[in-house]
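Researcher: We plan to redesign the surface later, but first we want a full-length starting point. Tokens attached.
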């Protein structure tokens, strides 16, 4: 079964409720990163070209069910109008008679942006009345908000009960293709690189990917729990001793499945790390065991070489999670080296959302990868093999 997409229908002349992910980083009303707006454009443009009446909805931040000017979507309306090259009507509410009256005035190909749906508590509760009030504005539903597709909220799932057709937009279609099909049926070898802070957050992903990958590479703090599982010492490095057994099971499963499982050969250890100030004290590389008093914060040069060689021979690469505390300059070499190798490789490269996307952009390679996911939590849940309520609510063919 496949999810119906916007390409399967013609929404000309119809009122279309389009759930976007305009949850952009804002500081003093200025948008710091417009990636999510850019990512939403293809679907909006297609609907405009078809002559649909395009009613856009999104959340922004965590206003906790109350109106709060700090989380208004007004700056998004302004930026979106600029990027789209046409005026956008912004309404300071998302349900009710005034909104309905504005929608009634819309012509074909016109675009309207509703105010933050999370100004109502009913949004995150998936309250049926709130969903019905949103749905009253439209005939059809297009979900293109991948970042919230793992949540059953009123505007991501609830509205679907009232509208027809219910299809995914071009962004979700692409996310499903890369995180789904292209990793489930990849061009081989498929090398998966996982990093970040916690094994507990990613163990289900590791487990699911052990069924698909030819090679799994582990970096970041996660690697220290695996080091403990192999009987090595890790000094003061971040680890999860409660998950040592889980790590051992993953290692055993890899052996059983014939999946190459690579852990760092060496690590950068530091003293006196101050995350807030972005500084570290003494530092040195450790091969194998890390001594007491030292904290592992990045992979070392031998690991970089090992991991890079693996990436170079892959036909598909999936990356999720940094190799070290990349937010601090002294600890970003491993993450940036991996980013560079992925960017330079000929493989289909899929960056699985969250911090890896941030890191690849910081390293300056954002435009040299095949696909960057716009979802953090959603991409992880999808890679785990979980159903996404914002997708299952849509028409299936
Ligand atoms: P996650 O959200 O699980 O992908 O984790 C991302 C976070 O992991 C980043 O903020 C990194 O700073 C952090 N991280 C990566 N490597 C380490 C490490 N060796 N020690 C502590 N934190 C780390």
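Model: Full-length starting sequence:
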């Amino acid at each position: 079964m496949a999810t119906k997409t916007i390409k399967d229908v013609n929404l000309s002349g119809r009122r279309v409720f389009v759930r976007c992910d305009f949850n952009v980083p804002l500081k003093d009303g200025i948008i710091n990163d417009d990636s999510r707006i850019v990512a939403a454009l293809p679907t909006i443009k297609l609907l405009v070209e078809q002559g649909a009446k395009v009613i856009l909805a999104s959340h922004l931040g965590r206003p906790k069910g109350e109106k709060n000017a700090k989380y208004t979507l007004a700056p998004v309306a302004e930026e979106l109008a600029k990027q789209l090259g046409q005026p956008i009507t912004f309404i300071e509410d998302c349900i009710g008679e005034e909104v309905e009256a504005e929608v009634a005035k819309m012509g074909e190909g016109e675009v309207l942006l509703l105010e933050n749906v999370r100004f109502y508590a009913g949004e995150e509760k998936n309250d049926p009345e709130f969903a019905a009030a949103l749905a009253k504005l439209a005939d059809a539903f297009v979900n293109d908000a991948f970042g919230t597709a793992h949540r059953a909220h009123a505007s991501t799932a609830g509205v679907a009960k009232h509208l027809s057709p219910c299809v995914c937009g071009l962004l979700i279609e692409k996310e499903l293709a890369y995180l789904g099909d292209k990793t489930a049926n990849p061009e081989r070898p498929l090398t998966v690189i996982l990093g970040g802070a916690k094994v507990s957050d990613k163990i289900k992903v590791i487990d699911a990917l052990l069924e698909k990958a030819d090679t799994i590479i582990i970096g970041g703090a996660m690697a220290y729990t695996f080091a403990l599982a192999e009987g090595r010492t890790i000094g003061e490095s971040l680890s999860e001793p409660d998950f040592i057994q889980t790590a051992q099971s993953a290692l055993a499963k890899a052996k059983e499945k014939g999946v190459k499982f690579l852990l760092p050969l060496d690590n950068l250890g530091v003293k006196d790390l101050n995350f807030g100030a972005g500084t570290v004290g003494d530092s040195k590389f450790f091969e194998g065991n890390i001594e007491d008093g030292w904290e592992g914060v990045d992979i070392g040069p031998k690991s970089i070489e090992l991991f890079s060689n693996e990436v170079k021979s892959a036909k598909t690469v999936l990356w999720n999670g940094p190799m070290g505390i990349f937010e601090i300059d002294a600890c970003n070499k491993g993450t940036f080296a991996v980013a560079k190798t992925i960017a330079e490789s000929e493989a289909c490269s899929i960056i699985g959302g969250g911090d890896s996307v941030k890191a690849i952009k910081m390293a300056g390679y954002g435009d040299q990868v095949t696909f960057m996911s716009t979802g953090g939590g959603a991409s992880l849940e999808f890679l785990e093999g979980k159903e996404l309520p914002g997708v299952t609510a849509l028409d299936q063919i």
